[in-house]
């Protein structure tokens, strides 16, 4: 553990959360660099705070910004993230000098990892392409936002995750919480440590082999294969038959007898630091 990890103390930091997360995540890391973790009482967006960690994250290490509350959280396509009574608000940071095409599948792998974690907590779920994790009743259990940043020769991925732990946002009727599903209250740090271990392991696998180790697991958790499906891409709605997922994680949609590959790339916003 880095003895200077609290040296850059900021007002509003939750040092007890940081200590707990370091103790849970450092033992499973495979590099001396380990984790850089910051926890806050409240932020505008954990995604924005995580961007500041990029210069201090090296390939093989990881970062995490977690908050008890965020007041300017955002979801995919600029949607506002609605707060629940208790929730995980976190952004994980990973950096790689590997081939960028290996990471086209990252949104799918993140959704799969969250769904697998829910199973460990006795909360079964399904995945709706590319990474909506739904309860068996069809309500949304988590929100995911992934941003891509170019940092010199390295590729940086900011993986934002929001999970309702207790209470559903009043403005979002399609959402459901872990407490509603399981009758148990989980702490944000427990969920973040579970995801941190899983994401870091999965990121290493993606770096070396892309989607190959995840494709069957993802398909086993999705619904609607060989059924009609409509995809909203920008201003275009494409309708066809859902035929599964290709080797890079692209959705396979049969449109008028022609198989079309559709990337989840609209989830990734490329920016420079």
Give a structural overview.
The protein has 273 residues and is of the alpha+beta class. The chain folds into two domains: 15-220, 2-Layer Sandwich (BirA Bifunctional Protein, domain 2), CATH 3.30.930; 228-272, SH3 type barrels, CATH 2.30.30.100. It is 24% helix and 33% strand. The protein is built from six helices and twelve strands. The protein has helices at residues 15-25, 46-51, 106-120, 178-182, 188-209, 215-220; strands at 35-43, 62-70, 86-96, 125-128, 132-135, 142-151, 154-166, 228-233, 236-245, 251-255, 258-262, 270-272. Strands 1-2-3-7-6-12 form a six-stranded mixed sheet. It has a four-stranded antiparallel sheet with strand order 8-9-10-11, with no helix packed on it. Strand 4 (125-128) and strand 5 (132-135) form a beta hairpin. The longest helix has 22 residues, at 188-209. It is globular, with a radius of gyration of 18 Å. The chain starts with 14 loop residues before the first helix and ends with a strand.
Mean pLDDT: 86
The amount of helix comes to 10-25%
- Topology, number of strands: 12
- Overall structural class, as computed from helix and strand content, comes to alpha+beta
> What is the CATH architecture assignment of the largest domain?
2-Layer Sandwich
CA gyration radius, whole angstroms: 18 Å
Question: How would you write the strand order of the largest sheet?
Answer: 1-2-3-7-6-12
The secondary-structure element order is HEHEEHEEEEHHHEEEEE
**What coarse outline follows from CA principal-axis ratios?**
globular
Structural domain tally: 2
Q: Give the name of the CATH superfamily of the largest domain.
A: Bira Bifunctional Protein, Domain 2
Q: CATH first level of the largest domain: which class?
A: Alpha Beta
């Amino acid at each position: 553990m880095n003895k200077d990890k609290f040296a850059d103390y900021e007002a509003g930091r939750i040092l007890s959360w940081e200590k707990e997360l370091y103790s849970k995540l450092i033992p499973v890391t495979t590099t001396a660099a380990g984790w850089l973790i910051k926890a806050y009482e409240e932020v505008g967006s954990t995604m924005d705070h995580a961007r500041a960690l990029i210069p201090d994250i090296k390939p093989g290490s990881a970062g995490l910004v977690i908050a008890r509350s965020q007041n300017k959280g955002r979801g995919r396509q600029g949607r506002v993230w609605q707060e629940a009574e208790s929730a995980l608000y976190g952004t994980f940071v990973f950096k790689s000098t590997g081939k960028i095409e290996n990471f086209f599948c990252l949104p799918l792998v993140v959704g799969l990892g969250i769904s697998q974690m829910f199973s460990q907590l006795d909360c079964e779920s399904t995945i709706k392409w590319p990474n909506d994790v739904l309860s068996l009743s069809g309500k949304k259990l988590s929100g995911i936002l992934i941003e891509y940043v170019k940092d010199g020769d390295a590729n940086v991925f900011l993986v934002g995750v929001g999970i309702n732990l207790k209470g559903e946002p009043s403005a979002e009727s399609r959402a459901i919480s872990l407490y509603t599903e399981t009758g148990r209250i989980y702490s944000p740090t427990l969920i973040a440590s579970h995801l941190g271990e899983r994401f870091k392991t999965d990121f290493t696998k993606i770096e070396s082999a892309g989607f190959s180790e995840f494709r069957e697991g993802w398909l086993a958790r999705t619904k609607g294969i060989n059924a009609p499906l409509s995809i909203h891409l920008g201003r275009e709605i494409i309708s066809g038959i859902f035929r599964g997922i290709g080797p890079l994680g692209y959705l396979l949609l049969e449109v008028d007898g022609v198989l079309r590959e559709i990337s989840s790339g609209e989830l990734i916003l490329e920016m420079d630091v």
